Amino acid sequence: MKNVKGRRRKQELKPCVLRNEVPELCFLWKEFEGYYKIELRLKLGIKICLPSTDYRTTFFANTAVDPKTFYLLNSVTDCQLMNFFQKTDYRLLILKLHLEGRCKEFVEQLRARYRFL
Which end of the chain is more exposed for a tag (fewer CB within 10 A), N or C? Predict the structure, then answer.
């Protein structure tokens, strides 16, 4: 904390909750006329939730329903994937023309490791 400039005030601190549940990353695959849409979701038990865009953390995920509750991600790969999808609000659009080649390889690797809904 000695490297942080300025003092932290109590009013700047926000309470949060850390849960023991480990979220499972899953994807929604939607097909449209000229493109595909991949959306990242978090599966907590039987509930499927949209990730929150309010607080961006590295090793934790939080849901849009309860953004102050954080769940530790399962692996570093999950962290990197969350970081990648955070930049585009947890969606990725792929033109049908571009699905061949690198995009197809990326989607196949996602399908091999994660659940698609």
Answer: N
Number of domains forming the structure of the chain: 1
Two structure tokens written together for 55: 């607080």
Query: Which range of residues forms the domain containing residue 67?
Result: 15-116
Helix (H, G, I), strand (E, B) or coil at 65: coil
Contacts of residue 94, Cβ cutoff 8 Å, sequence gap at least 6: 35, 36, 37, 38, 103, 107
**Two structure tokens written together for 81:** 């994937």
pLDDT digits 0-9 by tens, 67-95: 999 999 999 999 999 999 999 999 999 98
Tokens 């995009």 locate to 103
- Beta-bridge mates of residue 70: 18, 62
Alpha helices (H) along the chain? 76-86, 104-113
